Amino acid sequence: MCILLLLITAAAHAQQSPAPVTLKQLLNSVNQKAPTLLTDSAAIAIRQAQAAEVRNNWLPDLTLNYQADIGTANNVTGPYFGFGIVPSSSGGIHTTSVTTTMSDNLGIAAFNWEVYNFGKYGAQNKVANSDVQVQQSQFTESKYDLQAYTINYYLQLVRLQNFLGIQLRNIERTQEIRRSIESLAKSGVRAGIDTSIAEAELSKARLNYIELNNQLKHVQLQLSAVSGFNYQAIVPDTTVELTLINEPTAYLFPADTANHPIINYYKSVYQNSLQRENLVKKSYNPKISLQAAAWARGSSVDAEGNYNDLGSGYGFDRSNYLVGIGISYNLFDLRRRQLKLRTQRASTDYAMQKLSEQKELLAVSANQADVEMQTALDRLKEIPKQLKAANDGYRQKLSLYKNGLTDIIELDAALNILYRAETDYMQAKYDYANALFQKAITENQVTSVLNYLK
């Protein structure tokens, strides 16, 4: 009775369950809603903003200053280094110390423009653009990795869904055996112990079903976390495997590892390091600057050295301007440039080695994918023989048991052989689909395989 209720509940749940979510639908949702992709997309915007900032490094400085002061001008003549703030100019206008308060004001407009630095601006822009490219390549790689992650879990979901179907059929068969035993036991043909054995097998099958259902929900939760779907709504399309199996050319696609997202990412890192090398070279070049200043000043001390009313110091008495072109170069930058360039070249060599490493790993993975693909194909050819033989054997044993010509032990053995054959067939279909997608992921041809699915 409990089994009947279990099957009725499962059938009712199947009728009420939402329509299957196809792999294409799931991948589209992942591309739009995956938290990691949203974060990486924001990181690209940051790099683009930084590149725009770097492009404006050429802008000149135009500084406006004004100050009104009151104090003393009791100075002596003599040169000095101006460390920090210089409160007043150095120069004596009286032969004796004078501490009379004076006032003055000063307005300055200063212009400074690094007109030419022998390619530094251009090198900075190239590095900034390269940083954007690295971030975009990383986004593409993350998207591709997440696509592989989604496909892997979706195929696991299909496998578990099929496994649940096998388990339900196993429960039905065990129930059928139990009914036969009860009928035979009532007529005295079979001993009651057979009923206990059948009950134990039935309980074991039910426990397996519960455990498989738990595993399925865990996979649904994993997919829900990256797709935005409610986990209960992620019901897989269980025709995926047979659809691909029925396409004999599905795995015959050319490899495109040269444009693989992983390779493109490491290429962008390598190019970025080369651009940084160029920036190091340009950063220590001479700098040509255009400088200009205009200023006006007033003071309460007149040309004869008389200290007048403080109010007379707040107005401009004199004005000047100055325009000049200057070039600057630090000779010790030659050594600094050499040391920094050596460090950056080491980073470039590392990036190149990582690129070569990834190419080799992809080549090995491609070979491994071909081996797994061939193994899956060979397994699919052999499995139907096992399944047919196991099914025929079970039906024969069940018929013999009902007629009292064999015992429960042999019938259970036949049932287990059929269960294993069905499980092996389900696993073979999963292995084929998984091998096909792993080959497509490794060889950058996922879209080619997805085109076979609805």
What can you tell me about this protein's structure?
The chain has 454 residues and is an alpha+beta fold. It has a domain at 2-21 and 157-284 and 333-450: Outer membrane efflux proteins (OEP) (Up-down Bundle), CATH 1.20.1600.10. The chain contains ten helices and four strands. A four-stranded antiparallel β-sheet has the order 1-2-3-4, with no helix packed on it. α3 runs antiparallel to α4 (120-186) and α8 (333-402) runs antiparallel to α9. The radius of gyration is 41 Å and the shape is elongated. The two termini are 40 Å apart. Residues 1-15 have low confidence and may be disordered. It is found in: Cell outer membrane. This is Outer membrane protein TolC. Belongs to the outer membrane factor (OMF) (TC 1.B.17) family.
Summary of the model, kept short:
By secondary structure, the chain is α+β, with helices and mostly antiparallel strands. It contains ten helices and four strands.
CATH level-4 homologous superfamily of the domain at 2-21 and 157-284 and 333-450: Outer membrane efflux proteins (OEP)
Mean pLDDT: 89
**Rg computed from alpha carbons, rounded to a whole number of angstroms:** 41 Å
Q: What's the architecture of the domain at 2-21 and 157-284 and 333-450, going by CATH?
A: Up-down Bundle
Residue windows where pLDDT falls under 50 for at least 5 positions: 1-15
Distance between the termini: 40 Å
How would you describe the shape? elongated
Helix content: 55-70%
